[in-house]
Amino acid sequence: MSEIKDKDFRVLTSVTVRFAGDSGDGMQLTGSQFSDTTAFIGNDLNTLPDYPAEIRAPAGTIYGVSGFQLAFGSDDVNTPGDLPDVLVAMNPAALKKNMKELKRGGVLIVNSDAFDQKNLKLANYDSNPLADDSLSGYELHQVPISSLTANALEGLPLSPKEVSRCKNFFALGLMYWLYDRPLKNTEDWIKDKFSTKQEYVDANTKALQAGYNFGEITEIFTTRYKVEAAKLPKGIYRNISGNEATALGFLAASVKSGLPLFLGSYPITPASEILQYLSTYKSFGVKTVQAEDEIAGVCAAIGAAFAGHLAITNTSGPGLALKTEGIGLAVMTELPLVIIDVQRGGPSTGLPTKTEQADLLQSIYGRNGEAPVCVIAARTPRDCFYMAIEASRIALKYMTPVILLTDGYLANGSEPWRIPHVNELPDISVKFRTDPEKFYPYLRDNNLARPWAIPGTPGLEHRIGGLEKADVYGTVNYDPDNHDKMVKLRTEKVKKIVNDIPDLEIDGDDHGDLLVLGWGSTYGSIKDAVNKARKSGLRLSHAHLRYLNPMPKNTGQVLKNFKTILIPEINLGQLAHLIRSEFLIPVEQLNLVRGLPLKVNDILEKINSLLGGGNGK
Amino acid sequence: MSEIKDKDFRVLTSVTVRFAGDSGDGMQLTGSQFSDTTAFIGNDLNTLPDYPAEIRAPAGTIYGVSGFQLAFGSDDVNTPGDLPDVLVAMNPAALKKNMKELKRGGVLIVNSDAFDQKNLKLANYDSNPLADDSLSGYELHQVPISSLTANALEGLPLSPKEVSRCKNFFALGLMYWLYDRPLKNTEDWIKDKFSTKQEYVDANTKALQAGYNFGEITEIFTTRYKVEAAKLPKGIYRNISGNEATALGFLAASVKSGLPLFLGSYPITPASEILQYLSTYKSFGVKTVQAEDEIAGVCAAIGAAFAGHLAITNTSGPGLALKTEGIGLAVMTELPLVIIDVQRGGPSTGLPTKTEQADLLQSIYGRNGEAPVCVIAARTPRDCFYMAIEASRIALKYMTPVILLTDGYLANGSEPWRIPHVNELPDISVKFRTDPEKFYPYLRDNNLARPWAIPGTPGLEHRIGGLEKADVYGTVNYDPDNHDKMVKLRTEKVKKIVNDIPDLEIDGDDHGDLLVLGWGSTYGSIKDAVNKARKSGLRLSHAHLRYLNPMPKNTGQVLKNFKTILIPEINLGQLAHLIRSEFLIPVEQLNLVRGLPLKVNDILEKINSLLGGGNGK
Amino acid sequence: MANSPEVVAQKYTAKDFTSDQDVRWCPGCGDYSILAQVQRTFPEIIQTNKEKIVWVSGIGCSSRFPYYMNTYGFHGIHGRASIIATGVKVANPDLSVWVATGDGDLLSIGGNHFIHACRKNIDIKVLLFNNRIYGLTKGQYSPTSEKGKVTKTTPFGSVDYPFNPLSLALGSDATFVARSIDRNPKHMQEMIKRVGQHKGFALLEIFQNCNIFNDGAFELLTEKDTKEDHVLVLEHGKPMVFGKNQDKGIKLDGAHPIVVDISNGKYSKDDLWVHDEFSDAPVHAMILAHLDDRVDLPSPIGVFRQYFKETYDEGIRTQINKIIEKKGKGDLEKILFGANTWEVS
Amino acid sequence: MANSPEVVAQKYTAKDFTSDQDVRWCPGCGDYSILAQVQRTFPEIIQTNKEKIVWVSGIGCSSRFPYYMNTYGFHGIHGRASIIATGVKVANPDLSVWVATGDGDLLSIGGNHFIHACRKNIDIKVLLFNNRIYGLTKGQYSPTSEKGKVTKTTPFGSVDYPFNPLSLALGSDATFVARSIDRNPKHMQEMIKRVGQHKGFALLEIFQNCNIFNDGAFELLTEKDTKEDHVLVLEHGKPMVFGKNQDKGIKLDGAHPIVVDISNGKYSKDDLWVHDEFSDAPVHAMILAHLDDRVDLPSPIGVFRQYFKETYDEGIRTQINKIIEKKGKGDLEKILFGANTWEVS
Ligand SMILES: Cc1ncc(C[n+]2csc(CCOP(=O)(O)OP(=O)(O)O)c2C)c(N)n1
Ligand SMILES: Cc1ncc(C[n+]2csc(CCOP(=O)(O)OP(=O)(O)O)c2C)c(N)n1
Ligand code: SF4
Ligand code: SF4
Ligand SMILES: [Mg+2]
Ligand SMILES: [Mg+2]
């Protein structure tokens, strides 16, 4: 009969799937397993975990729903997808929260066992949506996942609670069957994850297989789907999230610079993982200090920078606010320091687990006095790796603080990554000052960087600090003209970095009616929107800034060649503000501050409205 | 002989005097006494104290020199003057540090007793400037002030040290004679200052009179000067500094709003005096909390605002940096809060006792997430009083944080102030919410302000905090569309304040070749420069922003009508940045970051270079 | 619970203190017990004017507490609960101000505000939910986590020593220092009442189980078969007896505590150290706080120390009143025109 | 002083530790004495490699200290000295890291970093210049100013109680706690040497006179005619004797210290409390720290407590070395390609 089924295989170029269930249902795990397997068989993909701020909100409640969306395909995939084609809902709350997003006619798989009075009530359903016709217009599949899992695990030495914990693997198995993916990866993962608890290995594996077989033997699914491998460049790949890529980037920077890595940090969502990853790399001599607060984190890093380490500190918005004064000290003492800000929904505590791009202006202007720092931003999860190295390179070469911006979506989202070899990575080695001859702490080199003379070096004993420094000598100095000079020198130093960064690239013509300009994590959404617009016959270009301060040399030139500039941002127009001020040109804006990545469609609509009837030829 | 002297009276319309000596010489006291007397006899005036960051640097050293400059005149005086006409130097270091500033041909009075080997060496003089001809070209008067004082006090029961402490009063007396001012004010001041120590009263009074008489009887001064009273508007006047005016402004706001004043503060130069003044007003129920740090200062104030007080917190740049996160909380909880930032030289600890305007962008953009606040700035010492009231009015009416910017020059500088009567001040009374009917913590009024329901009010128990709020209800809410709406509502609210503030006034034509646009403490320098330019036949206008966010409604209109906009700032162009971004117009800049007020002449030169041959007619 | 006998008489019932927000802690979390005990005891503590109660918190699972109390509430920012509460209390000393906070919130980022609140004796009541872990951020070690603890941020074990929160409070001269356990409702209710009655800064540390990220941290003190041997229940004026069948006691030689067996006749209750909640110096309580340092000694619960001195908020109020009595209420016109002025006519 | 007999033998002289910057404190300031004693004792403490010394400070008059020492120095921001020093020390444990700080810098804004440095036992040596006032900002009260003090910010007297810095340090489990006085150079030199020898976090509180804004704050302890009766010089293993003619002593009943007269035969030295710097619990030292609370008792100077436990910086280093021994030095290529990967060809 498999051959009958073969007939019913439908080949798709891309699919968007969302898993949704209780915080306790293990949806994040299900999602990441599905992603890893999908990546493994060669699809391109992009993921968006979406979990509540509460740890384990009471079962069955809407605010307790945890979701995981991914898009995968045989072409390149740049976003987790706007609306899902397939929704797996483990209970009524999950259905209620996600239903409005499911594409019309989309596939809906529900755990029918969970639709009892209690759960329906918790989800504020007056009537059972499975009973009434509210779901007509969707391809609804009611699967009694709980009971089927229970049956499958009968006889195993497990409590009912433990049994029910396996139901996400049943759902996963079913999805593997539906999209024709192998079980092996997940089976292996289960094996070493529960290596100490054989009964769990058996149970989860059984549940996984039961789900797969359920698809195989029942007739309720008339079609299966095939998504061919994507044509990715040759190489060894892994699936990587932004936070892990960031951690690996700094580890690489440490190796390539020959400097031990020091992280001064304080846990904060969604940045904590960077600290967590780095604290596992002890065998590289990485030192991670979980400090008493963010101020301590940055100040400890400054101390470590003074002592000659590659010093970094990571945080999210509220933490960046607290580091403000410390960063100013690093500006005055001109020490290399990287601050990673994984942006989240603000202001204040805001939306801790959601994504946003609203710390850009704080990064550039949020310090007392004229306190210039270099600001750069990663645009995809894997780009975090390269920008971490770049941030380190600039900080070390120019003896300056660098702020690296990522965000909650990049941090938790993942995509396949062609792993580079260590020797492909830039060499960023540094030389400490050791010669006492003519040593002046603030005598600058061609890059306006001052020498880095670290404690322990004989004959170079000197003092630095937060008071204004005398040019060249670095002693305390209150002279008006010296201050004016130093203020301007510090600013010029950061401006000079422009000579050391790549030009802004344009995807598309270098002139025309419309340029869509973005920065950071909107890269994928903009790219897809622009491509869709092109498919519909429009002519437009896309440029994406990875360097915000300074901006690439050719930025003004690039903008000048387009009639209209559209800047979509997950804020109220912070890049737009910078562009207007810097280049005195009007810009169109798209600002949706919903704690979520921009939807391709929202951008597309804006593009259409701007290009009106179309400008095809 | 006095009539002979009368012949030699020269009448001047304005004079600039600088007193300079050791930190221990009491120059600040001398300067302020001279100012008070000068104000008292009806001159307009403007002062600039300039003291070192050290408390009492070793005697005789250059960095230990403390200075006090004032300009006074019979026309209105808007700045402390660029270069002094008269320099009183109590020792070689004072001469060394200030000589280069004295006007060519200016009057130089030195305490010749102090020019011994030791002091000359400390001031790095190779040869005695009083001996060589390095001071030719100035009207040099060598007065053995120390010994003359000693002689005058002979017989009094004082130690030599105590005697020498009186020499500044001798110098003061001499200056009183030279500029024909009465001794009485200072005599009275001495009486009640040392009421407990009669011998000090006698000594200082004797020294003062001795100085005066010395001028009278010796022939070394061939001319005296008269500066007629200025034609100031009718009224009762006092001489006031910016910090005292700020304190009084908030005291007035407390009285006019009917709310007790709460100040959460942490000492920092040059803002501490505001805390010090307010802590003396206990009889008004003012509560001042000297907290453990700036974070505590702002957070305590937020607590007090929640509890229904007029809550404020004052600081300088580094402290504002620390308050960043707290201000964000006030934005989210939409509580009335005024933050006073007395700007000083930065970045980091920078130049603690010097003035600067470099916290403008931090004030507007320096917070995580989209965290809009209202930002206003005082332009003269007395204006601090009115802007303090205005800041309170806006905060209370719109339930929003307001940042009031002043700076070190305004804070310590002083000028005569026509004291307003309490009934001339705006009424800013507020109504707390008390009715439980239909009470929703985030249901907004026409100004988009939410109700203020304070603990202790029966039936209005509610919870607020830093997590995103549900529109109207104010409960915690993670919904994407709600977040987008609230982010935009908060911004909209601050924008709406524009309907409630005065238009930008223009001094001069409302159109033309050149508009000089300023903000904050550069008011006086710009005003004088513009007037001088006019006297030289140029046509130009001056506008000065007191509201930075939002800017007055007509700002764009005003700018549009001028060919060129010049923005002089004591920073690298922060207002210029805002104007460019907001109005997309190019601007000319003058940026001198020397820790000092802008010199009238620097602005004038820039004006001349811009208006080239002149645009007179 | 609302209508359990002892509270029936009260004006309020537990319900009156229950907000309309659903509680969002993990099932099984020790925080539920704390919320329940507070809601049970408040009708007794708060006889009238519940509108005068304010709950302030920082950030953390524990800091969600105010949302569940139907009183005025302020969910602050991380670490700032005690200083925000200070502002509320100083502004209006008639309010009863309570703080709900966690070991990270109060002792890590909030440590400075905490010790200053102790020192200044600000009249706020602090309930420390000590689960020895960062809950809300998913399981990093905290300043009360034991040395060597393996957590997400210490995969090879932490290398630093934990705070003893009570020792820190005593060293900062807190006027009321007590401890209880989430699994001992009756005792916790007792302690909450004592806190409610104290005038001045009060710290109640509550051992709280985080069953997700640090499950069983207090097992020895809560499990049936071990708790009697590991918990010492402090009672004022009583000798310090503990153990399964009350057979052990704490004896003091000099300032040095030892455990003695009082079952074999060698020692009797009379030889034991008698607890004194009100001893003038913090030393007595300090010895008790440091019993935790040694495995051979039990962990005390109860009131370690209570004493009284002027509170900061009262001090400010009194000073103002005295001045107004002396000089009369301030007159703005007088202040404005007070300095040396001159007239231009 | 450089060539005074006892240092002649050393490699370094005081001069070697004197920078080229002129000292800018007020004439008569107690800070001069502290600088002098440090420069005098360092040749003895620092036998070799003075390039390994780092002085870190915050902001304040006292925090200008590093500029005057010819060693590596970092003048930080207000309150952050001990955490910046932590970063330096953890990065390079071979450095000898010293902190110069004031009562405002360390205990007001810097309080949190201070107690965490104590708790974590970071191997930094902290010299607290306690003048009980904010000097650099011109005379506001500080967390060590006595209650009721009239200053620029407390014109009617302060209403809050001061910290006892030693009590706070002891409550935070600091491993070395000592005190000296600016006017007692010999004793201060002794203490600085002890600090220099300690491995672990060390606090040396120095009573320092600010003759401009808080002159005479420690008069009783420094003036000829009063000091013997008001200062108790602690010496390990010695009974606690003090008084003009060594006629008074401290006796302990229970944990309660009292003053006894040992001149009239009623009591002898043998009845007195014997000082033990190394007592295992902080209690002994705590009693001493709180002598200050009572006017009838003298203020102790000397070493209150010293004990040893692994330092934080050593802990981190050891952990790393152990792991490298076990697994070998990390291989980046391995880490990058380690996770479950697949090949596209
Ligand atoms: C300024 C800032 N830093 C960090 C965080 C992240 N954060 C939230 S709660 C928390 C600690 C929670 O631990 P605890 O205080 O013990 O509370 P619990 O969750 O254990 O009850 C942290 C680090 C934050 N919200 N804000
Ligand atoms: C963030 C910040 N807040 C406040 C200040 C102002 N300030 C400088 S030193 C100081 C306190 C000085 O007192 P202390 O630490 O006792 O040192 P001392 O001058 O008495 O030696 C203050 C409040 C500052 N420089 N930075
Ligand atoms: S994470 Fe721990 S502390 Fe937080 S709610 Fe869950 S069980 Fe409670
Ligand atoms: S102000 Fe006080 S502490 Fe500061 S230098 Fe002068 S005397 Fe010393
Ligand atoms: Mg906790
Ligand atoms: Mg001090």
Word description of this protein:
Chain A has 617 residues and is α/β, with parallel strands linked by helices. In chain A, 37% of the residues lie in helices and 20% in strands. Chain A is built from 21 helices and 23 strands. In chain A, α15 links the parallel β14 (374-377) and β15 (401-407). The model of chain A is unreliable at 1-5 (pLDDT under 50). Chain C is globular. Chain C has 12 helices and 12 strands. The termini of chain C are far apart. Chain C has 345 residues and is α/β, with parallel strands linked by helices. In chain C, α3 (81-91) runs parallel beside α11 (312-327) and α6 (165-171) runs antiparallel to α10 (283-289). Classes of the chains: A alpha/beta (617), C alpha/beta (345). Chains in contact: A-B, A-C, A-D, B-C, B-D, C-D. Chains A and B meet through α13, α14, α17 and α20 of A and α13, α14, α17 and α20 of B. β9 (235-241) of chain B pairs antiparallel with β12 of chain C, so a sheet runs across the interface. The complex binds thiamine diphosphate (2 copies), iron/sulfur cluster (2 copies) and magnesium ion (2 copies). One magnesium ion (MG) binds at residues 60, 102-104, 131, 133-135, 142 of chain C.
Distance between the ends of chain A: 52 Å
Instruction: Give the rounded overall mean pLDDT of chain A.
Output: 95
Radius of gyration of chain C: 23 Å
N-end to C-end Cα span of chain C: 77 Å
User: Reading side by side through the largest sheet of chain A, how are the strands ordered?
Assistant: 11-10-12-13-15-14-21
Specify the biggest β-sheet of chain C: 8 strands, mixed
What is the overall silhouette of chain A?
Answer: globular
User: Measured on Cα atoms, how large is the radius of gyration of chain A?
Assistant: 27 Å
Number of helices of chain A: 21
What is the SS-derived class of chain C?
alpha/beta
Instruction: Summarize the amount of helix of chain C as a percent range.
Output: 25-40%
